[in-house]
Design brief:
single chain; alpha/beta; Rossmann fold; 4-stranded parallel sheet; 4 helices
């Protein structure tokens, strides 16, 4: 079973963390069986942490866990912190592999996305549902 773990920075502003979670739900709906589970984890300031996210997916029977760093450049978080957090997950059940996909900002589609965003003058964000 395959899982996609979207890894974001995390924010003190809970609505920002909820936006990442809402994006994760959209990705899950579009995965169409390519991934059995799509979830989110955070580097800091929000939960679950990266090690917690990895462990939870392994506990659910996921054997291939792919992390996608939701970051725009290869700064310290991408190059050093995320790999360190993966190590903190410790030993996983036999047969579980964790790999890291390229960070979002190095995607060849980024130029087209930036142009599309420049053309869009309103809306389109993944908004979390209003709080009760």
């Amino acid at each position: 079973m395959r899982a996609l773990l979207i890894v974001a920075h995390g924010s003190r502003r809970e609505d920002s963390n909820d936006e990442v979670r809402a994006l994760g739900k959209v990705v899950a709906a579009r995965a169409r069986g390519e991934f059995d589970q799509v979830s989110c984890a955070f580097l800091e300031l929000a939960e679950p942490s990266i090690p917690e996210g990895i462990k939870a997916l392994a506990a659910q029977g996921m054997r291939e866990i792919t992390l996608v760093p939701y970051f725009l450049s290869a700064g310290r978080h991408v190059v050093e912190d995320i790999p360190a957090e993966i190590k903190k997950a410790g030993s996983l059940p036999e047969g579980v592999t964790v790999r890291v996909a390229p960070y979002l900002g190095c995607s060849q589609e980024m130029a087209d996305l930036l142009l599309a965003q420049g053309r869009a003058l309103s809306g389109g964000c993944f908004q979390a549902p209003p709080r009760g």
